[in-house]
Amino acid sequence: MDWRNLRIVAFDTETTGLHPEEGHRVVEFAGVELRLGAGGSVEAEPFQFLCNPEMPIPRESSEISGIKDEDVAEAPVFAELASRVHRMLDGAVTIAHNYPFDQRFLTSEFARVNLRWPAPLAEIDTVDLSRAFYPEARSHKLGELCGRLDVSLVGAHRATNDAEACGRCFIKLTRRFDAPADIAGMVEWAGAIGVLPDTGHLGRDREGRVVFLEGEDAGRPVEENAHVLSWMTMARVFENGRWRMRYPDAVVSWARRWLRARASGRASPSSKSLGPADWGIDPPLGAPL
């Protein structure tokens, strides 16, 4: 499946603060659908709206986005357009700059109307791409990445402008660094999160969070238990006189990409070590390795 022929959606949010779990809300959403044309052209179709966060916008947030209480006083609440946003992201190749930030806020907003996080074909973070392809760069802010790729960004910190610039950066990176055309290859190239493997080991809960489906961690969200996912990438079992991986290749590959995209330098350190006493996967004494 060639990802260049699929729906490609870059998105961004502006918010009242940094922590949805503390009640901060979305004040602006923008999704920009990108279409790749002949000769390398890129067409952008934006969908943007301000929304009333049902709370005062702190001054420091307004200073960043320029959005003030009076700008959203007559705006719809997010719930009125949640279904359209959900449809836009569902089944698309999705892109954001610092993807976990926007995902957390949108997941929180969706939960208020009993919607779970949708199922994109890919969740691509241009921060991760910037780090991967420009490891010596002193900054990986969107504006800096745009400068390196000669992408225009006028009016930063407004959702539409940031979303389109982010999407165009992604397209330029795929061309400059030879991303595979096949979506599975592109997801691996980007270190992105793809569709969950249908093996019965991982799934999504009612809020759309990825959770473990078996064992003592069943029902627990992956994002709060990254050490368990890390264990799954190396766990082995001894059968018929030899060692084999406990989990299918599809699970191991997905878990490794998730850990690179979400846990590398972002997750809280695990209280567990990588020692055999914690994991309980040491081979029996005398067993061949």
Strand arrangement in the largest pleated sheet: 3-2-1-4-5-6
What CATH architecture label of the largest domain applies?
Answer: 2-Layer Sandwich
Radius of gyration: 21 Å
**CA(first)-CA(last) distance:** 39 Å
Q: How much strand content do the residues show?
A: 15-25%
Helix content: 25-40%
Tally of separate helices: 11
Tell me the number of structural domains.
Answer: 2
Would you give the CATH topology of the largest domain?
Nucleotidyltransferase, domain 5
Order of helices and strands: EEEHHHEHEHHHHEEEHEEHH
Quick tags:
single chain; alpha+beta; Nucleotidyltransferase, domain 5; six-stranded mixed sheet; 11 helices; globular
Summarize the structure.
This protein has 11 helices and 10 strands. It has helices at 59-65, 69-72, 82-89, 99-111, 126-133, 142-149, 159-176, 183-190, 226-232, 249-263, 276-279; strands at residues 8-15, 26-36, 42-50, 93-96, 122-125, 193-194, 202-204, 210-212, 236-239, 242-245.
Description:
By secondary structure, the protein is α+β, with helices and mostly antiparallel strands. The chain has 2 domains: 3-194, Ribonuclease H-like superfamily/Ribonuclease H (Nucleotidyltransferase, domain 5, 2-Layer Sandwich); 202-279, no CATH class. Helix content is 35%, strand content 18%. It contains 11 helices and 10 strands. A 6-stranded mixed beta sheet has the order 3-2-1-4-5-6, with helices on both faces. A hairpin with a 2-residue loop joins β9 (236-239) and β10 (242-245). α6 (142-149) crosses α7 (159-176) and α9 (226-232) packs antiparallel against α10. It starts with 7 loop residues before the first strand and ends in a 10-residue tail after the last helix. Residues 266-289 have low confidence and may be disordered.
